[in-house]
Amino acid sequence: MHTSLACLMKPVLYGYFRSSCSWRVRIAFALKCIEYDQVPVNLIKDGGQQLTDQYKALNPMQQVPAVSIDGITLSQSMAIVQYIDETRPGLRLLPADPKQRAQVRMICDLIASGIQPLQNLYVIQKIGAEKVQWAQHFINRGFEALEPILKQTAGTYCVGNEISMADICLVPQVYNAERFKVDINHFPTIKRLNQTLIELEAFKVSHPSCQPDTPDDVRT
Amino acid sequence: MHTSLACLMKPVLYGYFRSSCSWRVRIAFALKCIEYDQVPVNLIKDGGQQLTDQYKALNPMQQVPAVSIDGITLSQSMAIVQYIDETRPGLRLLPADPKQRAQVRMICDLIASGIQPLQNLYVIQKIGAEKVQWAQHFINRGFEALEPILKQTAGTYCVGNEISMADICLVPQVYNAERFKVDINHFPTIKRLNQTLIELEAFKVSHPSCQPDTPDDVRT
């Protein structure tokens, strides 16, 4: 596709309503006020639609999300979010100060490398019967580390008083924690930040409970 | 500590010779020609020195690496590498073009979120008897996705003809793969890139076989 034509087209998000990594990308699009189309990839139905050859061509890792944007296809939610941030105007998702940027990235990576990969669908399916305890263990362990870090970095939001990629990572991870019945009351800073963020429009419109592929019995 | 004084001091890397995430940071320091001090944190000895209260204060996640730099302490290797890149002159570790930057980050995150966390020491200790098969499974799965991506993006290095963070992630992951006896011959692009990179000075001086805490029987 010719690049100039590709740039005129809306980005396409291949995602799943309940996937926390898909939600990260939806929050970023919402914060940046970017219109996009969604193509649902049902991770459960038909044994997992992410396993088809058609989807594998978009993301060889066979996970959601993937995004077609500006004539290229990207996978890995944090790479997608940073590409959106670097190429689109509006709210910036990383602070200007290098030390604050590093703190934002540290929080993002603690979640995106230290927690989420260990409790995602593919991994807990391999764990089998003990999957809930496994997921709880790794979420609790991650949150025990995240809580003292956020206590130091947080203002209104995860790092200071401006929304950043750290907030984009936090809210979907808390959502996962609640699904796995982790007691968020043990983490007062995480709880307080999540309560503040979840009230913001960008986090509401992107919430798993109201996406095109959200089943009726989950929809609120 | 007063910031101006902190900036005069060499960065301190808290790491472990064999940790692939510590190696990422060592490569970045070497590529940027930055002198630094190393404080070894032995992940095996005394039940794991990363579990002490002293180390937990540096990195609540109780993992290596952590880096003290410019008066702050950072954890999460990719956040550290990007902080170094954004605050130090010399070779840039991310391309200038936004699409290439996104490709570099996609490759980094595939490794740093999609492979390494699933085969790190803490996780395979929890898996127990089947730990080698578990690690092999997740490395093979990740490399099967990485190979076609690199086939599209690679020139001399992972993305085009300039060294980037993607190369910093690739080489230590191949080292882990070899430790777990994954057959790299199945992944010709990964193998070729690794062979090229491993000959570069920055990758040699930072190699696990020649660090201050490398045991004599591993040292080459």
From TrEMBL, chains A, B:
PROSITE patterns noted in UniProt: GST_CTER (PS50405), GST_NTER (PS50404)
Recorded catalytic activity of this chain's protein: RX + glutathione = an S-substituted glutathione + a halide anion + H(+); 4-maleylacetoacetate = 4-fumarylacetoacetate
SUPFAM superfamilies in the record: GST C-terminal domain-like, Thioredoxin-like
Any GO BP: glutathione metabolic process
Annotated GST N-terminal domain residues: 9-92
The protein's Enzyme Commission number: 2.5.1.18, 5.2.1.2
Any one of the GO CC terms: mitochondrion
Major localization class: cytoplasm
UniProt keyword terms in alphabetical order: Cytoplasm, Isomerase, Phenylalanine catabolism, Transferase, Tyrosine catabolism
Ranges annotated as spanning the membrane: none
One Gene Ontology molecular-function label: glutathione transferase activity
Pfam families tied to this protein: GST_C, GST_N
Pathway(s): Amino-acid degradation; L-phenylalanine degradation; acetoacetate and fumarate from L-phenylalanine: step 5/6
The GST C-terminal domain, residue ranges: 97-216
Cofactor dependence: glutathione
Subcellular localization(s) per the UniProt record: Cytoplasm
Database matches in NCBIfam families: maiA
Family stated for the protein in its record: Belongs to the GST superfamily. Zeta family.
Protein name per its UniProtKB record: Maleylacetoacetate isomerase
Organism the protein comes from: Pygocentrus nattereri (Red-bellied piranha)
